[in-house]
Here is the input.
Amino acid sequence: MVDAYGGLSPEMKRFVSGLTAVHDIARVFADRLGKSADDLRAKYPMQEHPVVRTHPETGRNLIYVNTAFTSHILGLSKKESDWLLAHLYEQAAVPERQCRFRWAPGSIAFWDNRACQHYAASDYFPARRIMERVTIAGDKPFFRN
Here is the structure.
């Protein structure tokens, strides 16, 4: 997502830097877990994060919104927010910004959720994918110009 941010025009970078987006786990997981959105939000409240965040180790800025969790951008109308989010989501869809991991027996994949997006393609049927997920407790996202 560093490259995605780098691909924005200078004016767009200025516009989105400093904006805040709302992230809502219920957008994806309420239905999948068979819970109401309100019940899920009671345990995992919606969060506000910068639209552009600074990676705490590299110091590089990157786009920090995604189709799964980002519901809207604060301070913009719904139409403006929807348009801007769609534009930012498209940046992750550029093939040159993607890595396709080819699973093989014994494979291990590790990525930094602070700087990339993950999309699990369900293209392995009839094989089964057995997975264990580990999440490292991290920092609070921030933006530094």
Notes: The chain has one domain: 1-138. Helices lie at 2-6, 10-16, 26-33, 37-43, 78-92. The beta strands are 20-23, 47-50, 52-54, 61-63, 70-73. The longest helix spans residues 78-92.
